[in-house]
Amino acid sequence: MADKRMTESEVVAELRSGMTIGIGGWGSRRKPMSLVRAILRSDLTDLTVVTFGGPDAGFLLAAGKIRRLVYGFVSLDSIPLEPHFRAARQAGTLAVSEYDEGMLQLGLHAAACRLPFLPTRAGLGSDVMRVNPELRTVGSPYEDGEELVAMPALRLDAALVHVNRADALGNGQVLGVDPYFDELFCMAADRAYVSCERIVPTEELTVTAPVQTLRIQRWMVSGVVEAPGGAHFTACDPDYGRDEAFQREYVRAAADPAAWAEFTARYLAGEEPAYRAGAVAG
Amino acid sequence: MSGVTRAEVCVVACAEVWRGDGEILASPVGVIPTIGARLARATFAPDLLLSDGEALLVQGTWALGDKPPVIEGWLPFRTIFDLIYTGRRHVMMGPSQVDRYGNANISAVGPFERPTAQLLGVRGAPGNTVHHPTSYWVSRHRPRSFVERVDMVSGVGYDRAAAAGPSASRFHEIRRVVSDLGVFDFATPDHRMRLVSVHPGVTVEQVVAATGFDLVMAGEVARTRLPTDRELELIRTVIDPQDLRSREVPAP
């Protein structure tokens, strides 16, 4: 069986500018931030990013990496509004596809099922139909005669997710209470990369945790990255909660270009070990 | 008990939206609706389901910021959508703009292409409103929040649901709007917003002046009911001992 262990840089080396990339987690929770930071250090650009958005979107927008953002919301949870997302939207410079959250899930599900679309009531009557003029409705072929939104598949070139544990083969374990949509992202993608707090031998995965925590299966996964603190500053329960102080520092810095330059120079200039030493330990 | 505050009246008015809902998930957004949902279950709506705001269904009555006492189910984000589609939920959202037909905006103020104020995004509002009952809580009732037309229809109102056809209206219901000034519903022939009651200390003229469109008046406009002694005790000593409610609705 293939050993899929890689580094963040090796993952990013497999990505290309212009790709559509799905990012797992939810808001400011269990985001694959070490992979996002590796993208920030790369020359990748022109990305379409699909996300239940948090600071992953914020950092990538601030660095000018995103051409189109596909989302239902972007939020930092304990701080409702994401500063870089707000700035990009209010500057009018960002192409967006804003969908109902359930539509986003169905788009990923359709992609995972290799279907062109899935029907839903969600979106009908709302301005989601106005601001996404490519959306179409579809008539039920049965007697009910319902006319529903045909949510198009959101096929991804790559998916990035972060979990608590994984083995070297790509079996990923979520120990926190919510798996979010991570396995859907993986299944909707041509290639999925899983970062984790710790890589362990397969037999250790179920010693202390029930098998239901094994949400990500190796057939979904192309690469595994061991990334302790890899979700920082977002929450990665039960390994660690959200670093609220650091998140506040991020938001303060985002408000001012000079402060943001200082923030990026201080935390994002080096590789992941330098980030861990400066941000996670502190 | 004396000295009932405006915030406490609002809590009870929010609680009332879930009266008679039975065994469904009550999903409050915001401090006062959250207190209201817990109060409703602790008193007149005992069958309601409540979540801990994360991924658990929980029993009991507990304080804001505390851990709920008993877990009774698992409700991660993926399963919330399954639940929404069954219709067994009544959400109370907190829009920045709402109009006379109950269209609501939580996405962005100003033109969508370049908003003057980007908010959260539509979140689950489009899906919520066409699948199960929805109510709204507006903590600051003013012409900027009760508007002629919302900038980005996130939650679907009655006119838009009707225009979108039977599939949009089939399960659509905007139950009620509660603001810091009064209570409103859409029980009119053409589903235009109606003033049901004003909170104690508020006049109809005040509500009209703070509303950016013409409200339907319900003949004799009632006064929103006061909390009972038992409700006040639950609000003050059990659910919100830190008085977070007064930060959302300060004394007028």
What does this structure look like?
Chain B: Belongs to the 3-oxoacid CoA-transferase subunit B family. The complex is a heterodimer of chains A (282) and B (252). With 282 residues, chain A is an alpha/beta fold. Chain A has 2 domains: 5-108 and 154-276, Glutaconate Coenzyme A-transferase (3-Layer(aba) Sandwich); 120-152, no CATH class. Chain A is built from 10 helices and 12 strands. Chain A has helices at residues 8-13, 33-41, 55-62, 83-91, 101-112, 128-131, 182-188, 244-254, 257-267, 272-280, and strands spanning 5-6, 20-23, 47-53, 66-74, 95-98, 117-120, 136-139, 147-152, 156-166, 172-173, 189-199, 223-226. In chain A, strands 1, 2, 3, 4, 5, 9, 10, 11 and 12 form a 9-stranded mixed β-sheet that branches. The longest helix of chain A is centred in the middle third of the chain and has 12 residues, at 101-112. Chain B has helices at residues 6-16, 31-42, 77-86, 125-131, 158-164, 166-169, 204-209, 229-239, 245-248; strands spanning 25-28, 50-51, 56-59, 70-74, 89-93, 97-98, 104-105, 108-109, 117-118, 134-138, 174-179, 182-185, 194-198, 216-223. Chain B is of the alpha/beta class and 252 residues long. In chain B, 29% of the residues lie in helices and 22% in strands. Chain B has a 7-stranded mixed β-sheet with strand order 1-5-10-11-12-13-14, sandwiched between helices. In chain B, strands 2-3-4 form a 3-stranded antiparallel β-sheet, with no helix packed on it. Chain B has a two-stranded antiparallel sheet with strand order 6-7. In chain B, helix 2 (31-42) packs across helix 8. In chain B, strand 12 (182-185) and strand 13 form a beta hairpin. The interface between A and B is large, with 44 and 47 residues.
